[in-house]
Design a protein that fits this description.
Blueprint: H1 24-56, H2 64-83, H3 99-135, H4 138-150, H5 157-177, H6 189-212, H7 217-238, H8 243-247, H9 250-277, H10 280-287, H11 290-301, H12 308-326
Helix pairs in contact: 1-3, 1-9, 1-11, 2-7, 2-9, 3-6, 3-7, 3-11, 4-6, 5-12, 10-12, 11-12
Length: about 325
């Protein structure tokens, strides 16, 4: 996705047909092998947030989606070539998946790119510590949209998770009011990041709908990021901001590229590797550490202000994300 986070389809809980369950010792060994990959996902996404902040402190935020999306587009091309899935997108091919499967990824690309524009303005105004915990509310919106349009059920503890996230954001805002904000307009980052979170939540549901209609993961990535790059280029041209690409410092462009590699290549690779070695719930539990790790990185490396009240707010958000992710329905339809 064009987002900092990309949520995969949950794999089936049962063993593949015809295979006997793994011995407990082998399962434990797999979990131990999976934990470094799950942590790699966390550090990849959290580090990407730091590079995003470094870049837009000086560069035009409108450059963010274009430059950051390049590594993911290249990844999509490579995956389509490796998996031989280009035929899914050719109307003349017998493997063509049809417009109903293709359009969800196109719309996901449009929505997530618009959300990315808002994200870059938010992180410029308020930094990582305010923006990323608010952004993590995408799990709420994704759950609500999936419940409404895909008929997916959710566990009652998800509501507790939503409450913890809401309480964490309140504490985070109160702590910032007592602290040293990056700019006097820091509070605008909250609605901007919420808008981004909603766009990610809807995009994730569109992804799920497209994959349930037969699209391979590689074709989905290619479609989304082709759309994302088109929207990003069109925005720069229509708003007359394309000269900012030529005026941006090389270090800022490199920071955006690094963010794209960390989130769109390394983070995703670590996530899917962890999902092959560990249970989905455990991988999601690790991923909920991202806002906390990003907060600590921002405080120690970018010198962003952090007080005890703000840290408590971030911890509540991480706990809420954990509940919201882990207690998703076990009987989801599979792609």
């Amino acid at each position: 996705m064009g987002s900092p986070r990309s949520e995969p389809i949950r794999p089936a809980a049962q063993s593949p047909q015809g295979q006997s369950p793994q011995p407990q010792g082998l399962r434990a060994a797999g979990r131990r092998r999976g934990e470094p990959w799950a942590l790699g996902q966390v550090f990849g996404y959290a580090s990407a947030n730091i590079f995003d902040r470094l870049a837009v402190a000086h560069a035009d935020p409108l450059l963010g989606p274009l430059v950051r999306g390049l590594p993911s587009l290249i990844l999509g091309i490579i995956l389509v070539w490796k998996n031989h899935t280009l035929d899914q997108l050719r109307p003349t091919s017998p493997r063509y998946i049809g417009r109903r499967a293709i359009l969800p990824f196109v719309w996901a690309g449009v929505l997530s790119t618009i959300g990315l524009f808002a994200y870059y303005f938010a992180i410029r105004m308020a930094g990582v510590i305010i923006t990323i915990p608010v952004l993590e509310t995408y799990v709420i919106w994704g759950t609500l949209v999936a419940w409404t349009f895909l008929g997916e059920r959710f566990h009652g503890l998800v509501l507790l998770g939503v409450g913890l996230i809401a309480g964490g954001l309140v504490l985070l805002s109160l702590g910032q009011l007592r602290g040293q904000p990056i700019s006097p307009l820091w509070y605008w980052a909250i609605p901007l990041a919420l808008f981004t979170a909603v766009s990610y939540g809807i995009s994730g549901t569109l992804w799920r709908a497209g994959q349930l209609r037969g699209a391979h993961q590689s074709a989905a990535i290619l479609l989304q990021f082709l759309t994302s790059m088109t929207v990003a280029i069109a925005a720069l041209l229509l708003l007359g901001r394309w000269p900012s690409f030529l005026e941006a410092a090389g270090r800022d462009l490199l920071a955006l590229l690094a963010s794209g590699v960390l989130s769109g290549v390394i983070g995703i690779y670590c996530m899917f590797t962890a999902l092959r070695l560990m249970s989905v719930a455990r991988v999601y539990a690790f991923s909920s550490l991202t806002p906390l790790v990003a907060t600590l990185f921002a405080h120690f490396f970018l010198r962003e202000y952090l007080n005890l009240l703000m840290l408590l707010g971030v911890l509540l958000v991480s706990m809420g994300v954990t509940l919201t992710q882990i207690f998703r329905p076990k009987d989801e339809r599979q792609a």
